[in-house]
Amino acid sequence: MAETNGTINLNNLDVELIVDKSGSMGSNKDTPTGQTRFEYAQETAVALAAQTAPFDPDGITVTVFAGKWRTYENTTPETVARIFQENVPMGSTNTEGVLRARLDAYFARKAAGTARSTVFLVLTDGTPDSEPALVNLIIEASRKLDRDEEVAIQFIQIGRDAAATAFLQRLDDQLVSQGAKFDIVDSHPITDVEDLTPAELIEKAFAD
Predict the structure, then answer these.
(1) What dotted CATH number matches 13-207?
(2) In the chain, which residues have pLDDT < 50?
(3) Closest by Cα among 135, 190, 187 to 166
(4) pLDDT tens-digit profile of 65-123?
(5) Fewer CB atoms < 10 Å away: N or C end of the chain?
(6) What is the DSSP code string of 39-93?
(7) How far from the centroid of its chain's Cα atoms is residue 106's Cα?
């Protein structure tokens, strides 16, 4: 992602957390703590909800997805913890579908004149059901933006799936050469960003 020259106002920002609950999130324990990927994602999500509250005081939006998805608006750290208790990992990884729904919601707000800069933090462990569909979606979305800093998509990989690492890195590095108007994607293994504060993580999403 291009440098933003400090134009991101963290106090005028919407934070959306998109959490993968596909079957592999519950069956693999290749996390730093030995927890399942979904359990590890829960700890990360609750911490993010608590620490991003100063930037998004009406509560972050949380969407949990596998083949289908469900969105929870205006969450608190307590409700984020409850969301994880209500959802059991199973199913596929329809990343394109859930991200399209959330981007559509952003563009509806933009059309209404109510959109703020939005960062989508995507906690996921694997490659999506359709790699080309996700690539095309992000390219298409970038072409609807007027400014680079309107939207950032930060993929945070949980687990050590090498194929997922390679794919997410391609999303980070190659979409402009494939026709994206702006480089709106950043991706990192969670072990590379878990020591960052939410402010640092969000700045990285917009600036890298």
Answers:
(1) 3.40.50.410
(2) 1-6
(3) 187
(4) 999 999 999 998 889 999 999 999 999 999 999 999 999 999 999 999 999 999 999 99
(5) C
(6) HHHHHHHHHHHHHSTTT-TT-EEEEEESSSEEEEEEE-HHHHHHHHHH----S--
(7) 14
